[in-house]
Amino acid sequence: MNLLFSCIGKRGYMARLFREQLGPGDRIIGTSNTRWTPGFNACDKSYLMPDLTSPEYLPAVLELCERERIEGLLSFFDMDVHRLSQHVDAFEAIGVKCFIPRAETADICFDKWRTFQFLREHGFDTAETWLDLEGVKHAMDEGRLAFPVFVKPRAGFGSRNTFKARNWKELDAFFGLEPDMIVQEALGGDAYDFDILNDLKGRVLSVVCWRKSLSRMGETEQATTVHDERLSAVGQRLAAALGHAGPLDADLFMWNGKVYVLEINLRFGGGYPTSHLAGADFPKAIVQMINGQAPTIKQGDYRAGISMMK
Predict the structure, then answer these.
(1) Which residues pair with 249 in a beta bridge?
(2) What is the β-pairing status of strands 27-32 and 2-6?
(3) Pick from 230, 3, 15: which is nearest to 124 by CA?
(4) CA neighbours closer than 13 Å in the CB half-sphere of residue 103
(5) How far apart are the C-alpha atoms of 102 and 113, rounded to whole Å?
(6) pLDDT tens for each residue of 198-250
(7) 84 in helix, strand or coil?
(8) Which helix (H) or strand (E) holds 151?
(9) Vertex 176, ends 250 and 138: CA angle to 5°?
């Protein structure tokens, strides 16, 4: 079996977790646009690729898949997931099983305004979001919103250019940093997350919930697994509504008795080791699916109270 980990970055630990399920002769191949990529150290082979925005990028990935006889494809970078999603059919045509969403689903999750609309349309609680400052002012005048608020890029990832504005002066400054910024209400309560795995037909296999104790620059650094029926139910509804193939990571808040879904990443998140250490073996299920086997993973089959610290 040959697996391609596109844009592996610093996720070398994911290669090590997958390797536990591979046999002799199986290979993990990583890609990046720089040789200074930590994740390459955990791969059997590594390739430098054109920039994601280059017209040469997709042909290069397809050619690599054919040359290395790739059987399974995952990506670990949001922009790359979005780019690859537009060509899932082309990868499948050459025998690659893609744990990548299709374009429409990727568009929803990469665009924070579309994420907000999707969540509202499907009955999920989420943070109020605005595209312009006029709407923000109107909400404040009506008493529906108060400082602080968050300002972030509509198509951002991680915590890039995300700021907390405490007054109008800061809001004006942050909102003008780049085109297509959005404003979101600041949610209270406790921060949670879930890791979700769907099968290749978009059916939910597993939802693992954990509470975040520390995040830095959008990366989870401390978390503890929990069993919570409300979180699990929201996760199963969300994954079913998206119908994507592969892993999902989402930011959540438990506030005033409700579960708020904030952002959705259609890839392995930085906190996945929390779920893995608790016994939810997503790599095993993915390898089984690539081999044409029914995944043996079961919903809720993980231990609560397992903590991860980076």
Answers:
(1) 195, 265
(2) parallel
(3) 230
(4) 6
(5) 19
(6) 999 999 999 999 999 888 767 788 999 999 999 999 999 999 999 999 999 99
(7) helix
(8) strand 149-153
(9) 75
- What pTM does this model have? 0.95
Helices (H), the chain: 12-19, 57-67, 78-85, 88-93, 103-110, 112-121, 133-141, 168-175, 229-242, 272-277, 282-290
Nearest-angstrom CA–CA distance, 265 and 286: 18
The model's pLDDT over 137-170, given as tens digits with 9 standing for 90+, comes to 999 999 999 999 999 999 977 677 899 999 999 9
Residue with tokens 């959705």: 264
φ, ψ at 203 (rounded to 5°): -90, 140
- Contact between 202 and 150 (Cβ < 8 Å): no
pLDDT cut 90: percent of the chain above it: 94
Calpha distance 80→58 (Å, rounded)? 10
193: β partners: 210, 251
Q: Check: CB of residue 106 under 8 Å from CB of residue 81.
A: yes
- Tell me the per-residue pLDDT of 62-78, one tens digit each, with 9 for 90 and over: 999 999 999 999 999 99
Segment (H or E) for 215:
strand 204-216
Name the residue among 108, 78, 102 with its Cα closest to residue 270.
78
Q: CB–CB of 96/75 below 8 Å? A: no
* pLDDT tens digits for range 194-204: 999 999 999 99
Q: How far, in Å, CA of 151 to CA of 139, rounded?
A: 15
d(CA 63, CA 68): 9
Residue with tokens 């199963």: 236
Question: Which pair of structure tokens corresponds to residue 79?
Answer: 């922009």
Quote the tokens at residue 100: 């990548």
